[in-house]
Design brief:
This protein is an all-alpha fold. The protein has 10 helices and no strands.
C-alpha cells in the first residue's frame, strides 16, 4: 500500500517512507473491498469462459490506481477503471504481455546464474545413470537474492509501469464518468 501511495505521489511522498506507510494504511479497507469486487466480478465472468474473465480483469485492472490517485472507492473505482480502459484494452494487454515476458526472461536468466552451479553439480551425468531424478535446494544466498530482486526491482517496476499506463489513459479520457453512465455500468458489472 505504501508503494502504491508513493507511486501515485510521483515517487516523492509527503513525509517520506513513513508518510507513505501512514497514508497507505488509510486505504487498507477500501483496497481490500476493491479486490473483493474485482475477484467476484472476474470469477463470475470466468464461469462463462476463461477468456471473458481475463478480459474483464484487464478492464478492472486500473481500479487500485483510481483508488489511490482519485480517492474513488468501491464500485466507483471499478466503473472509472472500466471507463479508462474502454477502447484501449488490446494495447493494455499487449503492454502487460511484453512486460511479463521481459520480467520472466530477466528473472529466469538471473535464476540460472544463481542456481546454475548448484544445479549443474546435482544434474551431472552420473546422477541420471542411477535412475532417479536428482533434486537440489536453492542455496540460501540464491533465495535472498531472488527475494531482493522481486521486492526491490520487479514489484516497483510493475507497479510503476501500470501506473504510467493509468496516467496515459486518464490523460486521454479527461472527462469524468457521469452518474447515469456509472449507474448503468454498475448494473452491467453486477449482472
Amino acid at each position: 500500500l505504501a508503494l502504491l501511495r508513493a507511486v501515485t505521489e510521483n515517487g516523492d511522498p509527503q513525509g517520506g517512507a513513513v508518510g507513505a506507510f501512514k497514508r497507505g494504511i488509510a486505504f487498507f479497507f477500501a483496497f481490500i473491498w476493491i479486490y473483493i469486487l474485482i475477484g467476484l466480478s472476474t470469477l463470475g465472468a470466468t464461469f462463462l469462459l476463461a477468456i471473458p474473465g481475463i478480459i474483464l480483469s484487464f478492464y478492472l485492472s486500473m481500479s487500485i490506481y483510481v483508488l489511490f490517485a482519485e480517492n474513488r472507492r468501491g464500485m466507483s473505482a471499478l466503473t472509472a477503471s472500466w471507463h479508462y480502459v474502454k477502447g484501449y484494452i488490446w494495447s493494455i494487454i499487449w503492454r502487460q504481455i511484453v512486460l511479463f515476458f521481459f520480467v520472466f526472461l530477466v528473472t529466469f536468466l538471473g535464476g540460472l546464474l544463481i542456481v546454475g552451479p548448484a544445479a549443474y553439480q546435482e544434474f551431472s551425468i552420473t546422477s541420471f545413470q542411477s535412475g532417479q531424478m536428482p533434486t537440489f535446494e536453492t542455496p540460501l544466498y540464491g533465495q535472498v537474492i531472488y527475494l531482493l530482486w522481486m521486492y526491490l526491482v520487479i514489484t516497483p517496476l510493475v507497479v510503476t509501469n501500470t501506473y504510467r499506463i493509468y496516467l496515459a489513459l486518464k490523460e486521454i479520457k479527461t472527462t469524468n464518468v457521469s452518474v447515469p453512465e456509472a449507474q448503468g455500468r454498475k448494473k452491467w458489472i453486477i449482472a
